[in-house]
Specification:
0% strand, extended, mainly alpha, 5 helices, 56% helix
């Protein structure tokens, strides 16, 4: 006669804690963004060298321009918590920091009948800025102005 006795199933010896997996994914994601940032920076510099000072100037301006959205909330900044962007600046900041926008414009530029190298250089600078922000941990903001988690 056999008796059935419940036995506990042991946990696999190779189980990895969830926090370790999340941390590894975050590091991988940020490394990919950093590689992307280096690529777009090199492309912007190349465009500036190949197509003259205007292309370089626009690439540099568009590298800085997304952070100029902070000026929208400058008046409210002294009343905000540390790390908080004034809520009135959030829509502008989030729009300027979405990678899909310059990627879509690059795709449009590729198929458009008009070719102007300084515009492409500007888009490269813009994508470089967004990529560096993501690589260093700065993402989009909540409607209250705090970093999204």
């Amino acid at each position: 006669m056999s008796t059935l006795t419940p036995t506990a199933t042991p946990a696999p010896a190779t189980a990895v804690p969830t926090t370790t997996v999340k941390r590894a994914l975050a590091v991988t994601r940020r490394t990919a963004w950093f590689a992307n940032a280096l690529f777009w920076t090199a492309f912007a510099v190349l465009e500036g060298v190949n197509h003259g000072w205007l292309a370089g100037l626009l690439a540099g301006f568009f590298f800085i321009a997304p952070d100029l959205t902070f000026l929208v909330g400058l008046r409210d900044a002294p009343h905000m918590a540390k790390g908080q962007l004034p809520p009135r600046a959030v829509p502008y900041y989030n729009t300027a920091h979405r990678a899909l926008l310059p990627v879509a414009l690059i795709a449009l530029y590729t198929f458009a009948p008009v070719v102007w190298a300084p515009a492409f250089a500007a888009l490269c600078g813009w994508l470089a800025h967004i990529s560096y922000d993501r690589a260093f941990g700065y993402g989009l903001r909540t409607k209250d102005g705090f970093q999204r988690g």
